Amino acid sequence: xxxxxxxxxxxxxxxxxxxxxxxxxxxxxxxxxxxxxxxxxxxxxxxxxxxxxxxxxxxxxxxxxxxxxxxxxxxxxxxxxxxxxxxxxxxxxxxxxxxxxxxxxxxxxxxxxxxxxxxxxxxxxxxxxxxxxxxxxxxxxxxxxxxxxxxxxxxxxxxxxxxxxxxxxxxxxxxxxxxxxxxxxxxxxxxxxxxxxxxxxxxxxxxxxxxxxxxxxxxxxxxxxxxxxxxxxxxxxxxxxxxxxxxxxxxxxxxxxxxxxxxxxxxxxxxxxxxxxxxxxxxxxxxxxxxxxxxxxxxxxxxxxxxxx
Length: 309
What we know:
By secondary structure, this protein is an alpha/beta fold. The protein has 2 domains: about 140 residues, Rossmann fold; about 150 residues, Rossmann fold (3-Layer(aba) Sandwich). Helix content is about 40%, strand content about 15%. It is built from 11 helices and 9 strands. α1 crosses α11, α2 crosses α11 and α5 crosses α11. The longest helix has 21 residues.
């Protein structure tokens, strides 16, 4: 197995290889043992300074990265755009160069503009981890989802994975599709036609508008939330109607011919795309996803730091 990544940045799953993904999983497995020990820290990144640049709100991803960085003993700087000179009109490049002049080695960045991390990677020397760029990609979420499925089901070659919900506005969906395909899984998306991108079939995924049929087909259902904050026009008549036709509830799961694994990248709209009795059931690995997120992000930061020459 390769012992280093093929890239110095993690800009998207599209730009890494299946060998990279497997190396990240293997490294995460080792870090997962670390974070379950009484002393959860390792000195692996003691000489590395990491800046977290969040130009968009985030709770779970930001906390998860920060925890991963501290578990690796890195020096951490947190930057929130809401309280920064960005509000005064400073450009992205100026903001980042000012931070880099403080001798920062790596940037973890979330930005509302698709392609912002890619743009920066062409202009600065630090390693960049994309923590979500607009509706484009969210690579560490896809990696932790893939890793969680791998933990539960073993090798994903030939497994059937369903992604349900607001695919159109989701960066998680795109990264997940790339990641799962690179691991040999078959992917189907399901949701109202208005919430599926026009050319989604070109990515080599199956498309369905029938939730019961899709749940009967799959081994894992990854349920996405309705992203109302990204919708400037109404894509669905009402949340109640969405819930009626595409929401996952216990009665629906109990009526299937088999048991499936339930996932959700969070935050959940309980009672809309998923009911509490499903989210908190024994079928759900939602809390394992959160735990695995820290291990995956530790693995990514550790491996990228090793590629800095």
